[in-house]
Amino acid sequence: MAHRVLVVEDEEDIAFPLVRTLEREGYEVEWVDNGEKALETLASSPELVILDLGLPDIDGLEVCRRAREDGYDGAIIIVTARAGELDRVVGLDYGADDYLAKPFGLAELQARVRALLRRTSSAGGHAAEPARHDGLRIDIEARRVYAGTEEVPLTGKEFEVLSILAANRDKVVSRGRLMADVWDENWYGSTKTLDVTIGRLRQKLESVGVTDRVVAVRGVGFRLEGGTPDA
Ligand code: CA
């Protein structure tokens, strides 16, 4: 079955070659040129979105944030001509999986798309069952997480949430503490963002066969505990 990819890009000169390239690669591609249409189309859950930041109506970052808040759990690649802003954008963590500065080479983009789809389709169970790993290893200094020898690609916020839970393994960490430590005191959003981050974290850990689980403790917070693999 062909992977469905959504291209959100208002400049035809960029969108057309991109869509053609992806279609040649065998993907089922949809193209929209503004943020409103992007959010509408995301409701049909394409597996991957290539999202431009400079859109005529809603800023791409806002589209990304709202998509995650609405529970969209496919892959998001942000592309931007605002190269100078890229570091800041990555640091803020709007829930994107990858970032690419314009102008980008089509081969580079294709490689990123392939890598992300490989990852998300194994989470969706289309690909072969991942090898089971018991060990979850967190390299705090390098900010990298491994399941056995395989690296688990986490966003900044996912990494921070996981490292706090891991430092308090088998104990409950309150929502308030996670919000305060991972999002700063200027955060005025709802804790739904925390739930979305936890959801994606769980999915990524499961997709590589990590048996440790992030367990929700109703009304209190979350706990990381060792689990047994599903039969
Ligand atoms: Ca644009």
From TrEMBL:
Residues 128-226 bind DNA. PROSITE patterns: OMPR_PHOB, RESPONSE_REGULATORY. Gene3D superfamilies: 3.40.50.2300, 6.10.250.690, Winged helix-like DNA-binding domain superfamily/Winged helix DNA-binding domain (1.10.10.10). SUPFAM superfamilies: CheY-like. The modification 4-aspartylphosphate is found at D52. InterPro entries: CheY-like_superfamily, OmpR/PhoB-type_DNA-bd, Sig_transdc_resp-reg_receiver, WalR-like, WH-like_DNA-bd_sf. Residues 4-117 form the Response regulatory domain. Pfam families: Response_reg, Trans_reg_C. PANTHER family: PHOSPHATE REGULON TRANSCRIPTIONAL REGULATORY PROTEIN PHOB, REGULATOR OF RPOS. Keywords: DNA-binding, Phosphoprotein, Two-component regulatory system. It comes from Nocardioides mangrovi. This is Response regulator transcription factor. Residues 128-226 form the OmpR/PhoB-type domain.
